[in-house]
Amino acid sequence: MSVELSFVAVLEQWPTLLKGLYWTVLLTVLSAIFGLVLALGFAWVRTSGPLAARVVVGAYVEFIRNTPFIVQLFFIFFGLPSMGFKLSPEGASVLAMVINLSAYATEIIRAGIQATARGQIEAAQSLALSTRQIYTRIIAPQALQKVWPALVSQIIIVMLGSAVCGQISTPELSYAANLIQSRNFRAFESYIVVTVIYLLLAILLRQLLNWVGPKFLFGGVRG
Amino acid sequence: MVDFSTWDIVRNLLLALRWTVLLSLLAFVGGGLVGLVLLVFRMAGRRWLSRLVAGYVELFQGTPLVMQLFLAYFGLSLFGLQLSPWVAAGLALTLYTSAFLTEIWRGCVNAVPKGQWEASSSLALNYIEQLRYIILPQACRVAIPPTVGFLVQVVKGTALASLIGFVELTKAGTMITNATFEPFLVYGWVALLYFLLCYPISLYARSLEGRFNARG
Known about the structure:
heterodimer; A: MetI-like fold; B: MetI-like fold
């Protein structure tokens, strides 16, 4: 049996691909921003919050880290509406990705905080900085700098994980692939094209984040 | 509509859990074997060979597992390869696992001091013997905790096999939801069962880590 591959048939549908790319990037950006902010808060609670809050955040982190993303997504999208909490596919996708990333990032940032030198905190205290200032100005930037490579990898994993969101009809890249192959029956070609886009996106995102972190997030820290 | 008691739901989910466990073990063992072969290639000192393995790792770590599964199941059928969901899921997950494990293990082999290589080569051991008797036994000690930890990722990865029609825990959850219209309850149980499966593995990996650290 001879097979004729036709990538043109897939690339012809570039508007669909472009829309998918837009959504994948948007989901990733939103979840990275909200996920990291949430994680910075959780990591603080985890290291210096009251005991009860520490236990609750710990349970949250462990539960999210030990269940598959797709089940979390289905629970939010299909399960929560029966409790009267209804979300659009896009909203459910963002929520699931934020929750997922925040749990992993909490654990990563916590490791960074625990590795922050004791003397840094004592020095800040002796300068009469408030507890909040010490965290946001001294501890958090240094912790972020230490664990940034791990966070970048985690953000990329979440970006790749967003391919599942197409299953609840969020119009991201994998959804575009399914749509295109249902139109022209070019399953192999459309999955290959989209997989290559994901690969390029992953490489680009790593470059971008490696630049963004030192430039904007912890630029003042001298290693 | 079928009448499902909570026990019926849990019982059916537990039955489906078998396939999650089996597929995880298949992918883990298969991925381990392929990963080991890739590791040997990567460490062999031939530049083109180690580049090839590095490319393989980048490819599988830089693309979504969903796409790998779709390509294995829907994509290959174009070439006349009608794989069953079992074979397609097993294949995709094995390759995916092998890419991660070979990368984890490479780090562990690199953690073995260079003097060990030099000493063993001065004892006239060849490359395979060096690996077998000197390097791997030492690297294994370092490698066990992250390898066990990665098993959790594999178990969670098998949930995606549901998307190509493999009836494991997640797919069973979807099917039961379609029969009972109780997504909150069913997906809640699905999540709980995954947690009960994965959390002990995570704890075990962590305790191994602590143990190896203590010994230095």
